[in-house]
Records
---
Amino acid sequence: MPFIRFLLVVFFFSSGLYAIDYHFTETRYSDALGKSLTLHGDISLDEDKLTICYDNSAKKIEYSDEEVQISEEGKPINLNEEESFKLAQYFELVLMLFNADTHSLKQKFQLIQSKDKETLIPLTQLKDYIKKIEIQRKGGTLKSLEMFLRNDDKIKISVEDEVR
Amino acid sequence: MKYVNYLLLIILLFSGLLLKNEIHISTNLLSLFTSKENIQKLYIANELGYSKEMFIAVKGFDKKARKATKKIVKSLQKLPQIQDVYYKVLPSQKLQSYYKKYHFILADFNEQRWSEKELRSAMKKLYMQPNQNLFYTPINKNDPLDIFQMSKSKSIEHKGKYLILKNYGYLIRVKTAVSPSQMAQARILYKNVQKILQVYPETVAFAGFFYTVENSLKIKSDVKYIVALSTFLLLLIYFVMLRDVKLLSHTFVTLVSSMLFASLVCTTTIENFGVLSLAFGTSLTAVSIDYFFHYYFHNFYQNKKKIDKSVLYGFVTTVVAFGIFAFIPVPLISQISIFALLSLSYAYVVFTFIFPYLEIRLKKELKDVQVKKGFLPVWIVLLVSIALLSYSAFQLKFDENIKNLDYQNIKLQKAQKLFSQANIDNLKPILVDATTQEGLLENLHRIKELESNSYSYANFIPSLKACEKSKVKLQDYDFKSLNKRVNCEAQKVGFKKDYFKNTYLFSEKLPSCTGFDLGAFKSVNLSIYKKDKKFYTIAMVQNPSKLQALNFVSSIDVKTMFAQVAKKMFEDIVFFSFIVLCVIFVLLYFSVREKFFFALNYILFPLAVSLSVVVSFYELNIMHLFSLIILIAIGIDYGIYMSITHKQSYTIIAIKYSLLSTFAAFGVLLFSSITALYSIGLVISLGVGSIYILTRFMR
């Protein structure tokens, strides 16, 4: 019994070393259209790597080593430089929020903690694009993040339970 | 009377103390090599940050390299002499504001008239966009029809958001407050930077002031080594060969006194007397030792003669030679000549009139010496000399690059090359000026018209003409009607009401085409400097020499500046040397008469040998020329001594010791790794060798 317990502990510890997979729901509200678009997909997160696959799409988005790569059925799709740049910045931010990298977050945001959510106000050039970000966590892991953009659009990512 | 020599030294030291406030030595080496005007330009270029930049490249493009880069940046930012550190491509806040403000003027404007169909189709496409894109893409409220396109500016080499050095790794550009001429500051910053970088062995760093620090360290160690060698040789001569400490003391005191005398007079009376002139003049004083040796070996101090004719003639011709050089328009050479005049005169007076009272006796053992007779006839030596000189005249090439005189720091030169290779267009800096900021921009645009590849404010800021033209185009277009139509179609298609209320209604509030904030461009390495009612900036161009014809452009290429001065220096030196040689020939003739060609060989042969060796393997530089002048001075003396001597054997011994002393003073420079010093050493050693050959083999 103690041996099995030991194995379980090792298993739980080591699973933390590998990427965590979630189902997620992304809701994009467009102020211009006055309505939201909802997407579902799977997201796989690591310390500095992120992979997203949306349902109903053969395309896979990978962010690693501070670069974005999109592929469809294994074939890479070329992005123009500006798009690639902007996406990299976006995913860098998403990863930072998921990993609760407090040190980097404190450099870029003013953190306001309230009862059930964290509000982040951008301090750097990000404030030209983002008004604020609201995060909800449960037991230390991120449950949802919502970005309120300057143009009154909103992006909300809600995470379901971990995929085992 | 025995101690008159020491007394004179004490008097001189005392005078030095009294005149302390009158002594001024100029350490402005730059003023020796270029005009006042050019120094001004270099100063302004310096203020604009040119030559104060430091580059660091971290090898590799992986995560480890990125981490190292960020750590290095953090450490560098803590240093007080660092002004800015750039390692990302992101434009600065100021630059982004500039682009935002002038977006509609800077962008290419598609003036098409939109038909109903086209407009509807465009708005429909826009409406579908959020549904179709894999990623979130915002709706461009300001320009939904995408009629304003910012043309792609030439992108800087980058990977993601980081600057890179192509094929090497991440690049860090640092703006420092230290220019290469600030020795003390340079040392401190150099030490601090090396401390940070030593943890990351695969990084390469370069800055102008690295040369200053590394080369000065090398020069210091080189000088120590040479002084040690020189001292050893001198001690060998005086302790081992002559075995007379009193002699050493007296000659040493005399030489020091003559240097002191000349220094005092020159530094108090000549304006801008340079430290370099002081250094070379001092070393030239060593030449006067041959007066002493001639007197000593001929036992002049013990017999009742008042004047030795050969030394007198030698002294007079040397003085005349330097006297003529004192008028040369090259300040370095004229100052050295005046110094030499003074120190040699002092030495002559002391050796001739004071030394007899110092009770100097010639050691008996040295008197009985046999000397072999030479076999080379004068005319053969003369022919060989003329042949070698003619050969040299054909092979002669001048090295106008003063940088070549410095210690060749291979490691730094490699680093410099690594970074300059990244500058693919191979652009070089020029200084541009105007009386107003608008005028400056106009000038930069004129340069851009001549060279489309140039880099300056004109790459970012439109010319007044272009800007006004843009504005007119925008004001002429009926944006009001476009706005109405866009809103109408938007509503039809399904957009939120009044979402495009203010779209395209900017033409009333277009920004001014003047009064740009030129300080916003520091992150792209552009800055402006104001001095004496003029504005200056640096532009990078491919062909500086062509653009120099424009009256608002000045070159700040140190190499060409120095080359111009170096060329003039060479011409002056050659011209004056020619005059000096003619005068010397005349004086020589009247001193030695029928032995004219014999004596002449002592001048021509060493000159010919040195010159022919130098031109065969190197380009002639200023130090070579300077040393050749010294050879002339030495050659005159020896030629005269050998021609009108009564006791040739004594004269030959005297010359041998003089040659040894000269070698100990100058020849040891042959072991220096600094080109300037090595050049002097080479010429003098060859000269000394050739004169020895003459004393041994010429009949």
---
Amino acid sequence: MIINGLISKKKTVSLMPDGSSMGLRQAKTKKVLVAGLALTSLVDAFSILVIYLLVSTTSGEMDLNTDHIDLPVVGSSQTLKPAPVVKVAKRGYYFDEKRVSLRLLSVKLKKAFVELDESEKQKPIIIQADKKVGFAKINPLVLIATKAGFNQLRFAVIQEGL
Amino acid sequence: MDNQNDKNINFEINLLPVISLLAVLISFLLITAVWVNVGTMDVNQALGNETENAKKNPPSLWAKMSTSGTVTFLMKDVESSPRRYRQVSIRSKKRRVNIPAVEKYTEKFFKKFPEIKTALVLPSAKTPYEDVVLVMDRLRRNGIRNVGIAPL
């Protein structure tokens, strides 16, 4: 209930007998700042990132295990394609991730050659060697591979500048 | 009644779970991505039976690599080759092949003789594998398609 007082100030009086009276004050409005975040564009950006990463990580046809081997770095190279892989490490020669002697390697390479597609003109073999290895260690491999019938040697390298 | 129907049509997609899912996917792909690009340098090898049917050898450049790191370039099967280019030696740098000098020479050579499309690398037993690959790479950069490697 509102009563006009002597000083013509309006005041509210409670209808309850024990209620207190209080002066009218202007309600203070609190300004709340609400920032709207455009989530749609964030979702778009994330989707593009995911698609790019998916494409770049699955672009190669074959993965080479280059643990403990420092490959030479060159300016231009061809894409890595599936072929039998022979590793030349300090301990010896590895075929299919298993250490083999030169004699056994010769037998395995001849077997691998037979399994290659006959219609393909190129019979490749991938040679993965550490850059510090001397050519004397790679030479027997070149001879064995050529003798087995492989007419294309693919030396695994790292492409620089990408 | 109409207000109730309007409420059914207006429906908002909660994008926060989608963003969380994409963030997890991106983190996984970044961790598992391999940034090192492994390629191959392809070298065609002549098998024994091919030499019998071979016609005249095409003009070629041979790169003979010595144990000390010196690379000697020889012109082979080139008619009336200039004396200046018949045999050129590039001295080593700290017992390793001087790759910048090799690159400079091969660029100059193949500008002068663009008809030569074959090269053969003859490394020595102690030549580091890296030097062999780098010399082959420099030859390829100058348009040589047929780069071969001669075994010891």
---
Amino acid sequence: MRTILLQLHVAKPVLCDAWEDAPVARGVQICVYADSAGGPAERLARRTHAAIERELLGLGARRVTPPCLVRGSQIAPAYRCSGAAATAAARLLIYVADGTGGIDPQFAQYFPPSGAVVVPLVDVSIAHPPETALPAFIYTTLAEVTRNLDPRPVIPRILRAGGIVASSVRLFISYRHQDAGKVAGQLFHALAERGFEPFLDRFCSQPGDDFVDLIEEELADKACLISLETSAIGRSLYCRQEVATAVSRRMGLIAVDLPGSRQTFGVIRQRIDARALQFSPSGEVDPNDLKPVVDQIEALYPHEAARRPRWQDLNLHQALTAARRQFSPEGLGRYAAQGKHGGQHLLAMSAALPGARMFIEVDDWSARCGGCQGTVFGPLSAARSNRNREIQWLAQKSGIRAVDEGRLYRAVKRL
Amino acid sequence: MKTALLVCTRPLPDSWQPLLQHQAIVAAARAVLCDAVSEEPAWSGHRLLAPCNLDILPLLATVARDFAEFVEPEGSELPQAPILLYEDGSWSGSEGMDDLRPLLHPSRFQRLDLNLARAVQKCRPEICVVAGGFRRAEEQLAGLDVRFERRIYFECLMERHRAEEPTAGWIAADRLLQQAMEQAHGQREIPPAVWLNALRPAAESYEEWDLEPFMAFGPALERALWDER
């Protein structure tokens, strides 16, 4: 079952939610724990919990009532969570240090380092070095260090520790090889060390390949594009097409202005000023000089990666509202609408070309609703192509309609 | 079959305007080119007359590719490209044009080699969509021998600092959509969007999403282009 139980414990259980349809291979119980209330540790714990919620929403997970609140009105501590017993195959404890090294012994027993993933989070204002603030059972565990009680830079690593990821942290690095080949490689490794899944190389094109198709394919499962802007990047056909495809697919957009950058792609608002970087004769930069760039990418990433799920949801919601259809929310970018003649329709929106997984999801949803008609909206191709044939085959076999996003409003109006 | 003229003006830099404009251009192209009736994805047969501008050609290419006609190996006629290009003077000034020429593949674009006035005279577009500042677009359209059935612009792309006020007969697609949503809200309770409802209120200022203002350009354009008046 792909459910995440996300809990917040600050001296006592505070919040508990279940998130369904999360991109995990198995159920995960995540507990953000601070031993005491009222201090900076509580603030960091609450911020960490909120940041994870935003990530889960951005990944398309649906918040539902957790089992403990279905059965009663009280949230149980993590070690007595009945929902976890039923659904969670993995446990992740995010221990937010308050400086005392204290922890409820039952938590230490429930989240042993041998059987669970424990991520200590220590802010430099609370303890430095971090291990001085850790309880004995995780004294030797490497802690994530935060500054100014800001957990955002470490969230990608926390999610990876919990086995939650997939396309959420996939970055595509767009660059002009002659200008920035070496620094692109350095950035690739630096981002990988921070828990991202960066992609660097383009598919090898053959004569006759259509570059628009190639780029569409290379960006299909990426959440954010990083453009390394140099003085001559505008001459690169591939870089121009990569940015345009990222815009049309509602991807995150971050530009790194390297020396000589003319800010060619004005469409990218989030920019990192790296014009003072010094390049060696071989085209590389000092790794210490690259660190602030990576820090800024980490800080900007959660916001940029939210663009696509926001569009998927609000675009469909506003089309339904303007078309005066009665509807109910079923998930991010998922709504059940009443047709003109009373039948129920299940509608799902995709920013990228819908694949088999989406058809399966809508099919399952339809089955739960007693066989309602399902429709998937996305950037389909009318051209006679393999892409078109694949989508039409999936639509035909599943009985789910596939409709181009260009007629979203008109299709919804005609339901 | 109709032709829709797309007029673009240079957006305000260092703002969200460039991104919003590009989103509007993609939505306009899809709203015009997508057939609204066919069960399978199909080209509507309508064409888009757009500027041959390096900044937006890659955007248009992503859409044109989806509606490019198949070339019959033994066909006697060349297929029609879904998008016609008029010259706005920007292409010739760009660096490294030879490397960028694949953008103009004839399956996607038919380059008319005509300026706006002559392209309009040749193609007689029935629809005009302005993606950008209204005043500068009007300057481009001034004196053109054309009568549009529909003239559409976006308030969110207007240049506020120029105190733009569109003349009569122009449709603000975004305002039209907003009015439709307000009317719907007035008639019954509309459930909030999952995106807006799923998060707890941001406790810290940095937790607010730092994204461009949201605009459902696609539905807005579809209403403005194709709804009966």
